[in-house]
Amino acid sequence: MTNTFSKFETGNIYNYGWRAIEIIKKTPKTITYSVIDHYGNFNERRTEPKRAKLLSHTYTERFMADGYEAAAAEAV
Question: Which of 25, 26, 36, 69 could be bridged to 20 by S-S, CB 3.0 to 4.6 A?
């Protein structure tokens, strides 16, 4: 069984329930992101871009976004 390492890609949007995260910029150690509340709805709202330290786990990249852990998975 082969497992691939999931990484965040610049410009992609990752959906986590009622909020989505857009990746604006990525360096080897940090990530710049914007949170989108109610993604795809009429009341969609975007926050100011923020920076976080990029964490590397066994099979995926992760970072802490406003108290929530965001993991790289399939983009929207």
Answer: 36
